[in-house]
Amino acid sequence: MTLSTAPAAALPAPAGTAALLAVRGLTVDYSRRSGPADPAVDGVDLVVLPGETTAVVGESGSGKSTTANAVLGLLPETARVTSGGIRLGDIDLTTLSRQGWRGVRGAQIGYVPQDPGNSLNPLQTVGTSVAEALRIHKRADRRAARAQVIDLLERVGIDRPMMRADQYPHELSGGMRQRVLIAAAIALRPRLLIADEPTSALDVTVQKRILDLLDELRAETGMGVLLITHDLAVAGERADEVVVMRAGRVVETGTAADLFSRPAADYTARLLADAPALQARTGLRDRVARAVGEPGDAGAVVGADADADADTSTGGESPFVAVEGLTQIYARGDDAPGENGAAVENGSAGESGSAGESGTAGRLGEVIGVEDVSLTVARGTTHGIVGESGSGKTTTGRALAGFLTPQAGTVRIGQIDAADLGVGRDRRANLRSLRRTVQLVHQNPYSALDPQQSIGAILTEPLRNFRIGTRAERGARVAAMLERVALPSSFLDRRPRELSGGQLQRVAIARALIAGPELVVLDEAVSALDVTVQAQILDLLGQLQTELGLTYVFISHDLSIVRQIADTVSVMSRGHLVESGRTEDLFTRPQTAYTRSLLDAIPRPLGVPTPAAATSTAPVTAASTAPVTAPATATTES
């Protein structure tokens, strides 16, 4: 299946068209043993017209998913609709029995969940999962179901559908698994498709392909789409109408064009101000200055104003971080960091590669983590590393943090070579010094923090490991660090499960900083957070960089965030460095087709300009040590 390079546009519904989905005054309460609770959703109104997309946006806890679950009839037993109505055409969904729901859910309402990794049965082939709806609704016998599954997989753009149907979820990339979920959701040709954060875990190019696919299906079939998302750029680019929610209530509703250009509510304006894709570049230190109402001063960090002017590809004088010729090749079947052996979607690698494979090695039985990567980072600056899944970002970050010893190359951080720590006692001493100098902040704080420890114990542990201070001094240092990341001292006795995602990420940052590192590697550290919490964490990182003179390496698939905060950027693809340079130069005058394809895939609402023009001779350096054939652009996937 060939996908278009621009979002498909369904014909607008004629004036006066009856609503496909109408939610009026919806209120949902969750029961509590301690007494009545505030409603999770309170008086929500929204409409989806045939062939159109309505996006529901808001922060975590705003009631987006509860609203979607109410429409699907999938509220937990502790929740109930206490008032309001939900109609799908002429069907009152609030009055349906369990048997009645069986005729609606799947057949008339399709559902695409957020996490394809947890939504597909790992013990079933993907073909079996897609065929499940056909079997449940008795739409086809085994042979006919198999034929329909192949057709559905082909329709959603999966290459070699007959082979893919017999594979298991772990053998497919995240983008392919999301396509499988879409195939299952549309198997019975539903009138309404509910997509709950369908692209939040995907890199920018795969996100574009998934959203293009939803638009094409909508245009072809006339189905309506209810899109649940915290990504305002996606909502603005793809939706006909946008509903903004906060604390269970609708704050504002309007067309995407009106809402993004003339928001009526202060809360909507704040969300738009926090969304990185909708804002001009500021830089981390300028975020801090802006927050306190002062002009930005990149020189607030010692050496930053001089060193940030140096192009990372050529290096300034005495860079704090200097990586040269970094190479890590894995035997097929080894555990490449951050990868799972799933097939890639890009170019020919999507046919037979693995998520960590470059597609350029040509060596049977080998998978490239990184090959001949060189970059430099000036002290006190933020360096972004961007690229698609499998590009080598995480491998590079782990090498910087000393979590792997590369097969070749040097990784010099100050006076320490993380790639050559020596042996025996020297190695232990050098590794200890490296751990004090460099810390890593992971994407998922839930898995990075011990769920059995209190927050106080989590923050104290690095101080004990490095034998820093007396017991009283450690306690004071922990309390001061908790205050520095804007968390109350009452959190010291709490467990990770008692904190929100944004609060936990603050704890993870506090833990990384408490022993006094000079370099912090942030691996997708804000990608799972909604835009408001993202903005809070980025402001915190900027403040800490200003106060402590920290150097950051910021690894992300979200180019909008990287453009906001990084001084310099390296672009990676299939284990190789493609391009490096100053952030604004690279984003406005990219030198390679691959970088341009990444920039073109960034979602932008109407009226937000594309930042990249392809032709320039600006001082952006295309890496020359390892030629890379740029992956195919977003016109095809196979």
Describe this structure in words.
This protein is α/β, with parallel strands linked by helices and 638 residues long. Among the domains are: 1-108 and 190-275, P-loop containing nucleotide triphosphate hydrolases (Rossmann fold), CATH 3.40.50; 111-186, no CATH class. It is 34% helix and 20% strand. The protein contains 24 helices and 21 strands. The protein has a seven-stranded mixed sheet with strand order 16-17-18-13-19-20-21, sandwiched between helices. A six-stranded mixed sheet has the order 6-7-8-3-9-10, sandwiched between helices. Helix 21 links the parallel strand 17 (519-523) and strand 18 (551-556).
- What is the first-to-last residue Cα distance? 9 Å
Which geometry do the CA atoms define? globular
Structural class: alpha/beta
Mean pLDDT: 80
Low-confidence parts, pLDDT < 50 over ≥5 residues? 1-11, 290-316, 338-362, 611-622, 624-638
Q: How many beta-strand segments? A: 21
Q: Quickly give the CATH architecture of the domain at 1-108 and 190-275.
A: 3-Layer(aba) Sandwich
What is the CATH third-level topology name of the domain at 1-108 and 190-275?
A: Rossmann fold
With helices defined by DSSP (H or I, 4 residues minimum), what is the helix count? 24
Structure, briefly:
This protein is α/β, with parallel strands linked by helices.
How would you describe this structure in keywords?
24 helices; alpha/beta; Rossmann fold; 6-stranded mixed β-sheet; 638 residues; 7-stranded mixed β-sheet
Itemize the secondary structure elements and their pairings.
Elements: E1 21-30, E2 41-48, E3 53-57, H1 64-72, E4 79-88, E5 91-92, H2 98-102, E6 109-112, H3 116-119, H4 126-136, H5 142-155, H6 161-165, H7 174-185, E7 192-196, H8 204-221, E8 224-229, H9 232-238, E9 241-246, E10 249-255, H10 256-261, H11 266-274, H12 284-291, H13 304-307, E11 321-331, H14 349-352, E12 366-377, E13 382-386, H15 393-400, E14 408-413, E15 416-417, H16 424-437, E16 438-441, H17 445-448, H18 455-465, H19 471-484, H20 501-513, E17 519-523, H21 531-548, E18 551-556, H22 559-565, E19 568-573, E20 576-582, H23 583-588, H24 593-600, E21 621-622
Parallel strand pairs: 3-8, 3-9, 6-7, 7-8, 13-18, 13-19, 16-17, 17-18
Antiparallel strand pairs: 1-2, 1-4, 4-5, 9-10, 11-12, 11-14, 14-15, 19-20, 20-21
Helix pairs in contact: 4-5, 4-7, 5-7, 7-8, 12-21, 18-19, 18-20
